[in-house]
Each structure stands twice: as C-alpha cells, then as structure tokens.
UniProtKB/TrEMBL annotation:
Location of the IclR-ED domain: 73-256
Record-annotated HTH iclR-type domain positions: 11-72
Pfam families: HTH_IclR, IclR_C
Listed InterPro entries: GAF-like_dom_sf (IPR029016), HTH_MetabolicPath_Reg (IPR050707), Tscrpt_reg_IclR_C (IPR014757), Tscrpt_reg_IclR_N (IPR005471), WH-like_DNA-bd_sf (IPR036388), WH_DNA-bd_sf (IPR036390)
Name of the featured protein: IclR family transcriptional regulator
Entry keyword Transcription: yes
GO biological process terms, semicolon-separated: negative regulation of DNA-templated transcription
The entry's keywords: DNA-binding, Transcription, Transcription regulation
Native source organism of the sequence: Herbiconiux sp. A18JL235
Keyword Transcription regulation: yes
Molecular function GO labels: DNA binding; DNA-binding transcription factor activity
Length: 266
C-alpha cells in the first residue's frame, strides 16, 4: 500500500490528536496558541482535542499558566513497556550485581496513579534489611524512586502530581510543601540521583536513579535501600555512581529492544 493509499484511511481527528501529543513531547509545556502552531492544527481543534485528552489523563493543564503538559496517564502507559521489551528481564542481572556489590536490597519501580509501584525486587541477604513486595506502592514525594522519577518531569507536571491531598507526612523528615519538593527536584537534577533519608520510613535510607526512554521520558527507577546504620554518606555516593552506570546501560538495552520491536512490527 502506498502512502497516498494509506492516507485515505486516516481518521482526521485522531491524526490531529497525535500531532498535538507529539508537539508536547520534549517541551516544558505549551499554551493553547503555541500548541496549535507547533501541531499545525487550528486553535479551536486543539482546544477540543486537548480538553478531551486532559479528561482522560493523557494531558494535564496548569491551573495558573494554562499550559498543557504530557499527563500522568500517558506517562503510565509509556512505563508499561511492550511485553516483548521486558524491563524486568533486562534489569535482573544488573540488580543482582548491585545487590552482591553492596549487600542491600535493590528495587525497580515505575509511576502508577500518582505513586511509585514496585515492579521487581532483589532482596538483601542480611537478616535486617529493607524490602517491599512487587505490586506495593509508596508516595512519590517521600521515596527516592518517586523523587528520581519526578525530577525527570517539568515543575508544573510535578505540581500536578503533588496536590495538597497527597502530601502525606510519613515521618518528621518528609517533604510536604510544594516549594520544598521543587527545591529537592532541582537538587536531584543537578546531582543525577535522588535519596530519601528516613523520609518514608524511620531507620531506612534509599538511593535511586531514573531510567528513561529514548525521548527522555522516565519509564522506571532503580534504587538500593537499607538501614541508615549501614549506609553512610560515603557509601551513598558510591551507590549513586553504580546506579547511574547501571541505569545508563539499561537505557541502551531498552532503546535497542524497542528498535527490535518496531522492526518486527514492520
């Protein structure tokens, strides 16, 4: 089938919706007029499309600036990678190596409904260890994995994912203000890694990095957690460096896997 023939079957509004989403990817948000120009779609059509996508969670709109951003539902769908690109299988060897290197529990998580969901865990062999279960969820703002994921998003998207109702204080160290979290996001972006030091659970320290897709969107986070008595600042810095190296290799493998999946679909 030629390109001209295939275009006969295009659904106009669907094509425009895809153009709107593609115009937003990689931006820090666009206003209605900017989005219409970037997508090559009329302002009226963009308004109707964006309102529909916002209602389904595929886009979000900042209440003050009125800019549109990629929404939580779209990010969640991106994190549920094609089954032929199995992130758990890709991450398992690295997670085992990290557990053996540092002796602490290694976690793989993803964005899920305004929380971080544990996808896979390689537990420490210590009797005293920090561990959760696959499928369990924790808040984004109080966990290292959650903060690593949030730091790869725009500040306005972070604000949309951190409404007052979700600002639970898990411990006395938990960040519960938007300004506090945004300042923490800046620190995480500069450092390249996130941590929570007894912010989610007393006696626990966790270091995490984000794993991103080919477009820079966070698809998962990798972390190491253990008792504060065993993870001092020097060890935390070593853990962060090893996590960053492992995440970079996983991103390469993930990109190659997605290319193979796309090629197989042709």
């Amino acid at each position: 089938m030629t390109d001209d023939e295939s275009r006969r079957y295009d659904v106009g509004v669907l094509v425009k919706a895809i153009d709107v989403i593609e115009a937003l990817v990689g931006t820090n948000g666009l206003g209605l007029t900017e989005l219409a120009a970037a997508a090559g779609v009329s302002r009226g059509s963009v308004f109707r499309i964006a309102t529909t996508l916002e209602g389904r969670g595929w886009l979000s709109k900042h209440p003050d600036s009125k800019k549109y951003y990629i929404g939580e539902q779209f990010l969640a769908l991106l994190s549920r990678l094609d089954s032929r690109v199995d992130l758990v299988s890709l991450a398992q060897p690295a997670m085992t190596r990290l557990r053996d290197q540092f002796g602490e529990t290694v976690n793989l998580g993803r964005l899920a409904g305004g929380t971080v969901e544990y996808v896979h865990i390689v537990e420490s062999e210590h009797g005293l260890r920090m561990a959760s279960k696959p499928g369990a969820r924790d808040p984004l703002h109080s966990t290292a994995m959650g903060k690593a994921l949030l730091a790869r998003l725009s500040d306005d998207t972070v604000e949309a994912l951190f409404p007052p109702a979700s600002r639970e204080r898990r411990t006395s160290r938990t960040i519960t203000t938007l300004n506090g979290l945004l300042a923490e996001m800046e620190r995480v972006r500069e450092a390249g890694w996130a941590e929570d030091a007894e912010e989610n659970e007393i006696g626990s320290r966790c270091i995490a990095v984000a794993i991103t897709g080919v477009d820079g969107t966070p698809v998962a986070a990798l972390s190491i957690s253990g008792p504060t008595a065993r993870i001092d600042d020097a060890l935390a810095a070593q853990i962060a460096e090893s996590l960053r190296e492992s995440a970079a290799k996983l991103e390469e493998s993930l990109g190659a896997g997605l290319m193979q999946t796309a090629a197989g679909a042709l």
